[in-house]
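Forum: Protein Structure Q&A
Topic: Joint prediction for protein chains with partners

I've read a bunch of threads here and the consensus seems to be that you should model interacting components together rather than docking separate models afterwards. I'd like to see that in practice. Below is the full input, 305 residues plus whatever partners are listed. Could one of the regulars post the assembled result?
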Amino acid sequence: MGAIQPKVSEPISDEMALVGRAKGGDVGAFEELVRRYDRNVFRIAQHITQNREDAEDVVQDAFLKAYNNLAQFQGQSKFYTWLVRIAVNEALMKLRRRRPERTVSLDEEVKTEDDSVPREVADWSPNPEQQYTQAELRDILDRTIHGLPATFRTVFVLRDVEGLSTEETAEALDLSVPAVKSRLLRARLQLRERLNKYFKRERSNGSQSKPSSGDGTR
Amino acid sequence: MKCSEFLHELTDYLDGVIDANTKAELDEHLAWCHNCYVVCDTTKKTIEIYRDSKLYELPEDLETKLRTAIASRCKSHKKTGPEGSAR
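Posted by a regular:
Agreed with the consensus. Here's the joint model:
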């Protein structure tokens, strides 16, 4: 089975020049950076906050914060990784404000060891997403990812949806590389498990369940 | 190789960042373990479906609104310039 093809990233050759001009106070150069990345930042913010208004605020606040702190960006990482780090922090702050009863931290070790052990192993149709309309599919994907803990959701989105490398994801989230890998594995497996009910091949008689020591998916 | 060991390596396997020996062991496991094959295949599809989804695309009108707001907020901060380059 082949590996997943990495996302092709946009050319960044002129990016440091843009950042340099923006540092010198050229708002136009900064606006170009906004145009380049606002869709990505919005997607990340929406995935973390699960709320459109909050995501809009996060996009604005993250770019403003980036603009005001450009002098601190020394270019050791890509501008985008640095921006994502700011956006993730803004989004998590929103989430904490909205759900003060639940502490949201990316550091949390999320409970049980068994929450990622596959419990249902069922084949999917060749193109399972084609069984649904775009709107239905979006609803399914949204609800499914919504059920993941914020820490898993965030790692999955940065790594698999936005295509950051493991190292960039670790840097953006201030996590170690092994921590990113372990969260990513669990996020991927949990999403797969939850999507089973929508995508599994109905006529399959070969589906089997593996025993599990408990419901670790919540 | 046990299934639990296979699962442990699944992320690196899917990302193609694994040494040749380990990959060969994993491929061999996949060749006879149907359950792991299905888990691997459906996990790969999960990633591809999310990656290709248009989930949370930024609508054009909202993008325009946000860009305008960001530009105006940056300009209003420009009096002092980005911190560090002020003065």
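Strands of chain A lie at 120-121, 208-209.
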